[in-house]
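Need tokens for this chain, all 113 residues.
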Amino acid sequence: MNLENAQVQMRKGILEYCILHIISRGEVYASTMLEELTAAKIMVVEGTLYPLLTRLKNSGLLDYKWVESSSGPPRKYYILTESGRQFLSQLQTTWEELQFSVNEIVAKESKGE
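Here are the structure tokens for all 113 residues:
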């Protein structure tokens, strides 16, 4: 099994949750999301982020607004919809349960079998 592939798949599994969480803090520009995700070592490229943002918008979980920029074209800032907030709340519960379950398994000592 390829370790790098397993690591990528684990990160992809929580990407949607992380993106919604970042947006939940307030209006956010896509490049700011990329910077935060990269700093947290959740490797994402624009080619992954933008289709995911479009899918989340089409699902009614987020919306966006255009804001004029003094240094170029208008920028698209993303915001959560009420449905997005509810969905994020449910993901938060799932994350906490999953985190607890994984920690339970990982914390058990090997029986030397």
